[in-house]
Specification:
This protein is mostly helical. It has one domain.
Length: 57
């Protein structure tokens, strides 16, 4: 495989994604990061409230 990588003629822009694939992948990544961000903030606030209740008991 390594030999064929160096000896084969490379097509111009063969490694680049089409714009439609790039936009689709970016949309998936943005949705995942927004869910992760919301979950992180929610868990931090939940831990803070739980810890404050335990301390105040």
């Amino acid at each position: 495989m390594l030999v064929s990588f160096f000896t084969a003629k490379k097509k111009k822009n063969a490694n680049l994604l089409s714009s439609r694939q790039y936009i689709y992948r970016q949309a998936i990544v943005n949705q995942c990061t927004s869910i992760q961000g919301f979950f992180g903030v929610f868990m931090m606030s939940y831990f803070t409230v739980a810890f404050a209740r335990k301390v105040l008991r």
